[in-house]
Amino acid sequence: ILFNNLMGLFPYIYTSTSHLTLTLSLALPLWLSFMIYGWINHTQHMFAHLDPQGTPAVLMPFMVCIETISNVIQPGTLAVRLTANMIAGHLLLTLLGNTGPSMSYMLVTFLLVAQIALLVLESAVAMIQSYVFAVLSTLYSSEVN
User: Fold this and answer.
1) What one-character-per-residue DSSP string does 71-135 give?
2) pLDDT digit string (tens) for 24-33?
3) How many CB atoms lie within 10 A of CB 108?
4) pTM for the complete prediction?
5) Which of 28, 23, 67 lies closest to 47 in space, CA to CA?
6) Cα dihedral angle (34, 128, 88, 98), rounded to 10 degrees?
7) Tell me: the pLDDT tens digits for 33-67?
8) Cβ neighbours of 18 (radius 10 Å)
9) Calpha distance 44→41 (Å, rounded)
10) Does the entry feature the keyword Magnesium, yes or no (predicted)?
């Protein structure tokens, strides 16, 4: 993920992690394997995870529904987070890059400095997003044990 994110910062190279199909194809098998492993090997723990400790009896059916929905949307949120953050930075760089020809010399130098600053920021975002994907995947796997 880090390599794909950083490669997308070079000109004329498309960031493949800005496609929802790629990020979902990374997140969904991970989540599905964690869930299948958990339900086969730790069934009691998985059922206990659906009802948090200390929940009043009246709220238990609602909490089971909420926790089930929360578990089901995990791969989608993981994929959309990576995709949206990668698209946002590239879109900003593209929009700033397309306004250059219609500006005066003074504004062009400011625009160049702004684009370099955004490129540094985009590099940090590329690294942070790959780290977040890895940490959240690890967190989802630790819920199974």
Assistant:
1) HHTHHHHHHHHHHHHHHHHHHHHHHHHHTGGGS-HHHHHHHHHHHHHHHHHHHHHHHHHHHHHHH
2) 999 999 999 9
3) 14
4) 0.80
5) 67
6) -140
7) 999 999 999 999 999 888 888 889 999 999 999 99
8) 21
9) 9
10) no
